[in-house]
Write a structure and sequence with these properties.
six-stranded parallel β-sheet, disordered C terminus, alpha/beta, single chain, 10 strands, Dihydrodipicolinate Reductase, domain 2, Rossmann fold, 18% strand
Length: 373
């Protein structure tokens, strides 16, 4: 695996700064790669290791990544200190600047993935970054609810829309289980408290309408009928990046007897989103390497409103991912030597010749955090 470029629109945001800090920490083996699905496929599918990532991107705020990480307050300063110099060397380009060719040449990159992490409602800017990705043949990931003009992306692999990180992910897990037990959901009330920059936008009744729609429209298809369903998002600054959610679910059981589920959760928004973005970057490079173009529905489990896939059932979406990767493995006679998911048995290589050789580090730690200015 050669080095992999990752360009992020919204590089100084909470998710992006958490992602970059995480790569730096994991490259130094200062933390475990928890919550990364793609780790199980690094050798079998020749995915990028942490030493292979070269990261850049755009942001009008112009802070270096260490300043941005401190401002976003997702990770404590003590946790950031070992990688502070590396983060400080990485500064975003001006918003909208077309520097992809220079970035690719400077770092000698075969593939550059563009990841959209702009705030909600930045639709024109999101379409511009999608257009840049298409112009330069870069796989494109839309982790936001924004309209990126998907019609212009037919010639490249792309995936999205709106990352499914916390409450909606849990809803896509629980609703199929209630359906399978034939318990009737008569009402589902979901509310959120979020205090980061994204919360300020999506908590606004006007600016947050698209986010509310994405969170609201999956329950009917999951259950096969439309219960009374109310979703709210409230901006509450004291919560910061820690999102608090409550779900009140009214159900009818045998003989029509009413019951209720009450579920409370505290999710760290960027801590959930950052590893998902890393997984998507690795998997989109794989799709690009295989010559894929258009929407990638096998990655639908990562999104609230997935392109090209009508199902919202998390378990069916998971199966799409597993089937795609398994078929690739069989087609190219690559032997998976890691479990597909925790709890699944390991497979045994049939011969040494069929086993993918171990990954090697292509560059020292520091080089991946050079600014591509």
């Amino acid at each position: 695996m050669s080095r992999l470029g990752l360009l992020i629109a919204g590089l100084d945001g909470a998710v992006a700064s958490t992602l970059v800090a995480g790569v730096a920490l994991m490259r130094r083996r200062l933390t475990k790669p928890t919550a990364l699905i793609s780790e199980a496929y690094i050798q079998s599918h020749a995915l990028a290791g942490f030493a292979d990532f070269v990261i850049g991107g755009w942001d009008g705020r112009g802070e270096n990544l260490y300043q941005a990480a401190l401002r976003n307050r997702v990770l404590e300063p003590d946790r950031l200190r070992p990688v502070a110099r590396e983060l400080a060397r990485l500064k975003p380009w001006p918003a909208g600047a077309d520097k992809i060719t220079a970035f690719r040449r400077q770092h000698r990159l075969d593939t550059v993935v563009v990841l959209n992490l702009l705030p909600t409602n930045q639709n024109p800017a999101s379409r511009n970054y999608a257009r840049l990705a298409a112009r330069h043949g870069c796989p494109f990931i839309n982790f936001t609810p924004n309209d990126c003009g998907e019609g212009q992306l037919a010639g490249i692999p792309f995936c999205g829309r709106d990352g499914k990180t916390g409450q909606t992910w849990f809803k896509s897990v629980l609703a199929p289980a209630l359906r399978a037990r034939q318990l009737e959901v008569t009402g589902w009330y979901s509310t959120n408290l979020l205090g980061n920059e994204d919360g300020k936008i999506v908590g606004d009744p006007v600016q947050g309408r698209q986010k509310i729609r994405d969170k609201s429209k999956l329950l009917g298809p999951l259950l096969g009928y439309e219960p009374y369903h109310l979703v709210q998002i409230n901006y509450f600054p004291p919560r910061g990046d820690t999102k608090e959610s409550w779900d009140y679910i009214d159900i009818a059981g045998f003989l029509g007897q009413p019951m209720q589920l009450r579920i409370s959760g505290q999710y760290r928004d960027s801590i959930l989103a950052a590893p998902m973005c890393l997984d998507l970057c690795r998997f989109m490079e794989l799709a690009h390497r295989r010559g894929a173009t258009g929407a990638q529905p096998w990655l639908s489990m990562f999104f609230k409103a997935p392109y090209g896939n009508p199902t919202h059932d998390f378990f069916r979406q998971e199966q799409l991912l597993r089937t795609y990767l398994s078929r690739l493995n069989q087609r190219h006679r690559l032997i998976i030597s890691y479990p597909l998911f925790p709890g699944t048995p390991r497979s045994t290589p049939r011969s040494a010749a069929q086993t993918t050789p171990p990954m090697k580090c292509h560059r020292p730690i520091r080089s991946a955090f050079q600014s591509a200015q």
